[in-house]
Amino acid sequence: MNGMRGETQAAHCRINITLPKETVKLLDRVAQKGDRSRLINEAVRRYVHEVGRARLRQQLKAGYLQTAERDRRLVQDWFLVDEEEWQHDAPYIPKLPLEK
């Protein structure tokens, strides 16, 4: 038995949902006749994808903030060491007289 877009019925699950009338009107405005399921499927998938991305951004931000102070201290410590080394290893370059 064929279901939506040539896929087998086993790949789908029929559910019964309740939506506000205004939401159904919006759905009917943008979905072609008999295409509500496809639109709802796309909307749910897009929503879940965006929520997942937002959560990942939050987790990354929390991780960055958690280690920011430690990283700043490391950079300061190594900057001093690196600066000393540069000054020690810098070749002597004589200053040229300024032209008039």
From the structure above, extract its key features.
single chain, about 100 residues, mainly alpha, 2 helices
Count, helices? 2
Distance between the termini: 94 Å
The secondary-structure element order is HH
Structural class: mainly alpha
Shape descriptor: elongated
Percent strand equals under 5%
Q: Number of DSSP strands?
A: 0
Number of domains as seen in the coordinates: 1
Q: What is the gyration radius calculated from CA atoms? A: 31 Å
* Average pLDDT reading: 82
Largest sheet: none
Secondary structure: helix percent: 55-70%
Which runs of at least 5 residues are low in confidence (pLDDT < 50)? none
Can you tell me about this structure?
With 100 residues, the protein is mostly helical. It has helices at residues 21-30, 36-89. It has one domain. The chain is elongated and about 85 Å long. The mean pLDDT is 82.
In short:
This protein is an all-alpha fold. The protein contains 2 helices and no strands.
What's the structural blueprint in terms of helices and strands?
Layout: H1 21-30, H2 36-89
